[in-house]
Design goal:
The chain is mostly beta strands. It is 4% helix and 32% strand. Strand 1 and strand 2 form a beta hairpin.
Length: 180
């Protein structure tokens, strides 16, 4: 195990050399990130909740439909649903818009580009493209929870072009290589 110079500030870590969250020796333990993100409510979202976590352990905040009247999505159809919100995602992060599992399982409602990305330099309204993969028409009503928003850090990559990549046991085995 490695010796640590800086103590871990993560409350789940009890030993300065071991990360019990992941069960491995670590130089640094994961630290939960708390962000303040600026949000602007447009007039179309008056009376609707801001995105909120539905449980203390939820990773995503629910986004609500800011439609003025019911919108129907036919099977196979894609409709862009407004949220009436604009956000200023901090530099070094992205907003990820993801489907809600309940809508997906019960009604076949998803996002055609999941996860959708909100870049830190985007300042327009968050609009959610919903696709109906189900067999029945689906109605979106005002205030309905239509998607989840996750704000996550983004690594900036610098490419190192090489003639060959390091070998691994898996190699180029792809789709379904580990079985069903």
């Amino acid at each position: 195990m490695s010796t640590r110079v800086n103590p871990c500030v993560n409350p789940c870590c009890v030993n300065p050399c071991v990360d019990p969250c992941r069960g491995i020796a670590a130089v640094s333990c994961p630290v939960p990130i708390a962000l303040i993100v600026q949000i602007r409510r447009l007039p179309s979202a008056d009376g609707l909740d801001l995105p909120l976590y539905m449980t203390p352990g939820a990773a995503g905040m629910d986004l609500h439909a800011a439609v003025s009247s019911e919108v129907t999505i036919e099977p196979g159809g894609i409709v862009l649903i407004p949220t009436g919100l604009e956000v200023a995602i901090p530099e070094g992060f992205e907003g990820q818009v993801r489907p809600r599992s309940g809508l997906a399982v019960k009604h076949g409602i998803s996002l055609p580009n999941t996860p959708a990305t909100i870049d830190p330099d985007y300042r327009g309204e968050i609009r959610v493209p919903l696709i109906n993969l189900g067999r029945a028409t689906f109605a979106v009503s005002r205030g309905m929870r239509i998607a989840q928003l996750v704000v996550a850090p983004v690594a900036r990559v610098t490419w190192d072009e090489v003639a060959e990549l390091p070998a691994t046991t898996r190699g180029a085995k792809g789709f379904g290589h580990s079985g069903v």
